[in-house]
Structure prediction request, 216 residues.
Amino acid sequence: MLRVSRGALVEYAVSLPPLVLMFEFNPEHISRSRTITVRTGNAPGTRGGYDFVLPTETPRVAQGVTVQPESLTIDVLFDATDRMDKGDPIASVSGVQPELDTLRAMIEPKAQGPGGLQMLASLGSGPSRAFQRQETASVLLFAWGDHVLPVFLTSIRVEEKSHLPTLVPYRSSANLSMLVIEGNNPFYLFEQIRIFDGAALNTGQQAFDFARKVFF
Prediction:
């Protein structure tokens, strides 16, 4: 049976109203990608890098390596059927259009107003769609399970599956691509601690299994 869980995107900013989106998605279909770019240049020694013998020499071998931020891709489901069956007045009229509008608002550039308040940059800014100096992308917190990652929403692709007679969608899926904001922010640092704790747990388990096979 397909296991469906809950996730959330929350805008980390001073905005009115604050952008919050709860959704269902299948954790089996989270795609996480991280790459490094290696520039060997005219490195002496073997093709692809420097010669090395000892572990202490490996920092020199890794010169010219650039780490790319992690990217995430998820598929989410928006379905107002249950709420419509229960007589929810918003779902009965608007279906999942409010959720889809929230997604579009999250990817739109924001302009900062008095007191740090953020609003959609497209409001009253004319026809230009390029990012201006005073405009920024939304910083979002992507939460699922015990993970909370700061991300930029880089692309959305929506497929409307079922509609009300007014052509308002009440069932829709969306493919979301995000870029993790890596740096000195509390959410990313906590995730790094969690990763190293998990790696240490795995290393300890592997060492225990190896010792058990060798000595027992």
Summary: The chain is about 25% helix and 35% strand.
